[in-house]
């Protein structure tokens, strides 16, 4: 399943840094500056153990309901670059509320895996590739849709945005691209044969960004995901009918 994914680079506040997308396994370690929620955790407990305030962690992760944490969810527990944190109660006397170092932009980390309720805002997408949908979203075993066609079929940006990940560092996804569209939405494009854009590059809707392939896959397919506030939602609901 695609559960937790990549959150790289120091992001703007409401973004929870390049949120994360994907992972075939939810047990992979998170990067420095992040914490994976465990059973029995509360926001106040996480804040205390990381010497932060609950309000800072809620703000960095855009948590609308700080009391609703999910096991496996990955939270930023160190301030994004350029932001200021309000240190919470720290262990021991003389603590200055120091924080952990934020994850470096080169190290992918992961984020929440559970589907969310209907987004408060919407995004207008186009189909990222021509082909046949051979796997649909179910929110559990499939966190996106799979589109199959011949190797080399163009893959395009489903919406305008900025490339926040381009590489093959996430096991099970082959050559992967992640595009951030705004503070709430991002899309991911996996198993590509070739990538034509780089991290930090701005792309327009419909721009060719890759070619369909079979890297880390047993067939030629584009695995396409849509994430809202770091969690997977059904991309077919935001795509035009065919």
Automatic annotation (TrEMBL):
Residues in LysM domain copies: 33-77
Low complexity bias (residue ranges): 81-109
Stretch list, region Disordered: 80-115
GO CC annotations, alphabetized: cell division site; cell outer membrane
Molecular function, one GO term: metalloendopeptidase activity
Cleavable signal peptide: 1-23
Annotated keywords: Hydrolase, Signal
Keyword Signal: yes
SMART domains in the cross-refs: LysM (SM00257)
Protein name: Murein DD-endopeptidase MepM and murein hydrolase activator NlpD, contain LysM domain
Coiled-coil ranges per UniProt: none
InterPro entries (UniProt xref): Cell_wall_metabolism_enzyme (IPR050570), Dup_hybrid_motif (IPR011055), LysM (IPR018392), LysM_dom_sf (IPR036779), M23ase_b-sheet_dom (IPR016047)
PANTHER family associated with the record: MUREIN HYDROLASE ACTIVATOR NLPD, PEPTIDASE-RELATED
Pfam families: LysM, Peptidase_M23
Similarity comment: family membership: Belongs to the E.coli NlpD/Haemophilus LppB family.
Domain of life: Bacteria
SUPFAM superfamilies: Duplicated hybrid motif
């Amino acid at each position: 399943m695609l559960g937790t994914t990549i959150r790289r680079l120091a992001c703007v506040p409401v973004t929870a840094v390049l949120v994360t997308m994907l992972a075939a396994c939810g047990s992979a370690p998170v990067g420095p500056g992040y914490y994976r929620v465990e059973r029995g955790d509360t926001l106040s407990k996480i804040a205390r153990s990381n010497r932060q305030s609950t309000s800072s962690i809620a703000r960095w992760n855009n948590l609308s309901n700080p009391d609703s944490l999910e096991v496996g969810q990955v939270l930023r527990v160190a301030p994004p670059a350029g932001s200021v944190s309000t240190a919470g109660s720290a262990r021991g006397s003389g603590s200055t509320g120091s924080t952990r170092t934020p994850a470096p932009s080169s190290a992918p980390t992961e984020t929440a895996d559970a589907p969310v309720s209907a987004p408060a805002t919407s995004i207008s997408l186009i189909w990222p590739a021509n082909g046949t949908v051979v796997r649909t979203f179910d929110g559990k075993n499939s966190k996106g849709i799979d589109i199959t066609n011949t190797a080399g079929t163009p893959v395009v940006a489903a919406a305008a945005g900025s490339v926040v990940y381009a590489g093959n560092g996430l096991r099970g996804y082959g050559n992967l691209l992640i595009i951030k569209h705004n503070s709430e939405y991002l899309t991911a494009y996996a198993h590509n044969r070739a990538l034509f854009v780089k991290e930090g590059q701005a792309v327009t809707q419909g721009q060719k960004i890759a070619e369909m392939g079979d890297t880390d896959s047993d067939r030629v397919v584009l695995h396409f995901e849509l994430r809202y506030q770091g969690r997977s939602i059904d991309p077919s609901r935001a795509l035009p009918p065919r």
